[in-house]
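Quick review question:
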């Protein structure tokens, strides 16, 4: 068998650099998260960190974690924030029908102090929860996203959750995630994928949600976890009563820019908003 030489795949760094996207932050609407990403510049011969102000533009981010850690709340805050800034967002709902997601987004916008009228035409829902063909045929889903992106001038895509696209066919998980990743890059769309915890992995690991299929392909993994305070020592350290639930967040890796590598506290407020708190090393010092 004669092997073909793909000349189009060969280019110099200068040629590729001309097509490279500008690095800047896309606001998430999650207090404390945007400051965890940064870029660098050289001043007087020294490297200085500069906050990026959000997730990297045109990155594909995976938010992983076990149930009730704030994954869906985070992407809803992202969608509401971007929509309020005038940037249309596609929200692919795989777990709940679109009407229920709309109700949740309405609550999120009220809690964030953003008028519903300012965002309702800038969030485009794709209901993969109701239409099985979108869940079971990845190309149909990508074609539908492409159609919506072109018709509504979309800048970002949220999929909640990507794990639902390979239920009962996990051997195909890596192939499915790779297709989504390549599609978002080709269409120049910023993407956030939510994935569910796999019980066979450590809770704090990036592989805890979606196995190796997601974290090894995406540009960035944000890992959420939670624990129950069961000792007086932890109760005193976190200033919370015994039996309280405490949540954590960590950026497990981001190949497009620098990031805070520490584990931080994560809070879900009474109004259903997610906020990033202090780093654990700061809590211990105090």
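Suggested answer, residue by residue:
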């Amino acid at each position: 068998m004669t092997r073909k030489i793909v000349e189009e795949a060969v280019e110099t760094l200068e040629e590729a650099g001309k097509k490279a996207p500008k690095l800047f932050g896309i606001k998430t609407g999650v207090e404390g998260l945007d400051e965890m990403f940064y870029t660098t510049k050289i001043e007087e011969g020294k490297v200085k960190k500069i906050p990026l102000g959000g997730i990297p533009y045109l990155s594909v981010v995976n938010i992983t974690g076990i149930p009730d850690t704030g994954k869906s709340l985070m992407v809803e805050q992202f969608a509401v924030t971007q929509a309020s800034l005038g940037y249309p967002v596609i929200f692919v709902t795989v777990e709940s029908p679109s009407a229920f997601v709309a109700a949740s987004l309405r609550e999120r916008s009220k809690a964030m102090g953003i008028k519903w009228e300012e965002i309702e035409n800038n969030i485009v829902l794709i209901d993969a929860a109701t239409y099985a063909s979108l869940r079971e045929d990845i190309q149909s889903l990508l074609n539908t996203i492409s159609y919506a992106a072109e018709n509504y001038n979309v800048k970002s895509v949220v999929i909640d959750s990507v794990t639902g696209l390979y239920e009962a066919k996990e051997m195909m998980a890596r192939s499915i995630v790779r297709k989504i990743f390549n599609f978002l890059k080709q269409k120049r769309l910023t993407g956030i994928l939510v994935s569910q915890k796999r019980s066979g992995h450590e809770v704090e690991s990036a592989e805890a949600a979606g196995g190796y299929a997601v974290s090894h392909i995406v540009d960035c993994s944000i890992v959420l976890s939670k624990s129950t305070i069961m000792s007086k020592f932890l109760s005193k350290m976190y200033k919370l009563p015994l039996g309280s639930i405490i949540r954590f967040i960590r950026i497990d890796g981001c190949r497009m820019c620098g990031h805070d590598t520490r584990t931080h506290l994560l809070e879900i407020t009474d109004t259903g908003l997610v906020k990033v708190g202090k780093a654990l090393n700061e809590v211990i010092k105090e």
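Why it works: The first helix runs from residue 13 to 17. Residues 37 and 259 are 4 Å apart (CA to CA).
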